[in-house]
């Protein structure tokens, strides 16, 4: 059976979940209004209290201990309601932030634990192919010179020379890279060099000088191949990582926007 | 009132019902394991891979309290080159990604502060814990105060019951966090591209003396899932090694430990005796050597290479020493001069030779790495991107260089004593868990204080200048041993092939030095620092035995420098001029950059702060790399 599309909408989940809570309140007969002066400690509530005790003490409470715990619970509940009545929850930075955080958590909780379907991830890949494409790959030869003048003077000599490898100054950098990924070029020659060769057109001629953090280079950029999109099977986990982090942020923002739209905000300028 | 989390759970359950049961996306098999056989490997290690072996996330008991809200996932995204938003709202992305990362959260109370923070106040019985809970919710400043108290309590052994001593609940929580984390690591582990290694920090700290170790695994979740991080409370280091041995035996995997911050151990990290003061046994020395092949020599909390007290003739010995030298981690005990020997790495390497002479085994024959020990989930190591020791001193905070530290400010430790952190470089044949780990295991690794210099060191007996004209790296491997290796003394002078290439996007190099330590015929220990090769050697001739300073281009008013001095690469073939047959010795390189601004100077310019004189004098420094040593070994011992 196929569910209609709208059931997959996170915002629908958010609203439905809100309705569920409301229904739960109603069904449990719990009064959201703190002005009620009835506190009922039912069996289930007592079990919760006993469990809390057990977690701390590594054993269940005796009857007397349970009674005293219930008394403590009632005391806190009385003071809590009176505090609400006096409006002590207002202008309290801790309460305010805590509740705001809970709302954020509600909005994104599902995305944090969900296992998205392949269909969702395929769509994600189609929407952002560039994030999962291969890196650009470079094939190049280079010669290093300490000064720009030395590099410029060597250009003519290098073009057409078979022994080009002997024509630069010595440095422990690879003279050639074949099909090297962009990050590899970056790691070996640095940012400045990479930016420099990105301005060159590939070809069989020596070009330059190109500046790097080391000095000056003559470069034969044999090929620069832009990365190809990868099939889903090879990047599935990266797609999922990306989907998850983006989705958490988006859901929080969407949920917030939904609520925000009901407000008129006036900021004095 | 019912616990709000009950409703949250209901809500999530309701949402999950609507979402239905989705098919799980599986992590590729090759990302789950140790990476063997997944990529094509180079013939020999052909480039250093850069990483951080010591990063804390919001699962660390102190990091969370300091305010960090980024977890392992964000840590991995950031290290691998993606943009994240820091806890204080600053967008951050590494200009150059790292190649590997070890997330090393404290095993003690893993996730405990987050649980304390999230716990319903009602359930917190202990008055101290309740107070910390309230402080953590009150404000970031109060939260940092709470954690400072917590660290002091941990150091003094006065942590309240209930934070860590509910063993079952803690064990369950630890297992949950560990299992989740291992899966996250597998999801970000991409053989050939980025290596995500499992680890944790074992935080032993008797009386506040720092004996911490980072524990690092070679394996994927199929093996690491069979154990949980080992807590340090009420344990001894031998028990950590027992745990590691048991892991290897149970799973067939491999694991090693990396001691760090010996500089705040008050002499206890590298003792000549057993921890209980008795004579060191060969068994202890052997176990230590096997479990701990690497130590961390530099990180945010200072540099542990050596101290002017130990190396009075070394003019560069005081880097990253100020503040940290005062005493142990929480500064509950001041340091005395006789403690220095057990606190610094060069001296430990020397002690190792001496112990080897007596016991036949060297417990301190280790290689070195740098790392961050950052508690922000962000593995930043550079001066111009220092994201702080913890969230309480992220870069948006104006006076972080002057502000008090959480530990020991009354005694004189301030924000500006923090270094920007270091990185680890591993010479490996490819970027996989197995290759990176094995480089650590054979000590073919080195440390930097942040810059990515490429440092090669080969030791042999027949290297000559003519090796430079050919494939000298191949020659190094064929006719010698790389850093971390051992040469057998055959009565010939050891000769070293040395190359240091500057960070392509960093400062030029001032000089390369060889640090030699040895034990003489009478059993006495010695050290000497040789200037091997430096920039503009023809213009900078030695004067009364010393190489003149390289100069200083740093403009203090703008926090800028120029590469108009120094060299792009320094190379040399170096023969030990003081070789004596039969001498046990070690040799390691120290590579110095030209002076550059420290993070404190960048901050001073950005915020218009006037630094006090001592901080200003320290605001420009020569960043450096330390290689792992090569040892000259003798056949027999006395």
Strand percent estimate of chain A: 5-15%
Radius of gyration of chain A: 33 Å
Mean pLDDT of chain A: 84
Element-by-element helix/strand order of chain A = HHHHHHEHEHHEEH
Give the biggest sheet of chain B.
11 strands, mixed
Q: Name the largest protein-protein interface in this structure.
A: A-B, 64 and 62 residues
Tally of individual helices of chain A: 10
Query: What's the helix count of chain B?
Result: 16
The parts of chain A where pLDDT drops under 50 for at least 5 residues are none
Distance between the termini of chain B: 75 Å
Straight-line N-to-C gap of chain A:
55 Å
Question: What's the structural blueprint in terms of helices and strands?
Answer:
The complex is a heterodimer of chains A (269) and B (638).
Chain A: H1 10-28, H2 43-57, H3 63-85, H4 93-113, H5 118-127, H6 129-132, E1 137-145, H7 148-158, E2 176-181, H8 182-189, H9 191-197, E3 207-211, E4 216-225, H10 232-260
Helix pairs in contact in A: 2-3, 4-10, 5-10, 8-9
Chain B: H1 4-19, H2 29-32, E1 47-55, H3 61-66, H4 72-79, E2 84-85, E3 91-92, E4 100-103, H5 112-118, H6 127-138, H7 140-156, H8 167-188, E5 195-197, E6 199-202, E7 213-217, H9 221-224, H10 237-251, E8 255-259, H11 282-291, E9 294-299, E10 302-303, H12 345-359, E11 367-370, E12 423-428, H13 433-441, E13 445-448, E14 454-460, H14 472-479, E15 480-482, E16 486-488, E17 495-501, E18 509-519, E19 525-534, E20 569-575, E21 584-593, E22 596-597, H15 599-607, H16 613-617, E23 620-621, E24 624-627, E25 630-633
Parallel strand pairs in B: 1-4, 4-5, 9-11, 16-25
Antiparallel strand pairs in B: 1-12, 2-3, 6-7, 7-8, 9-10, 12-13, 13-24, 14-15, 14-17, 17-20, 18-19, 18-21, 21-24, 21-25, 22-23
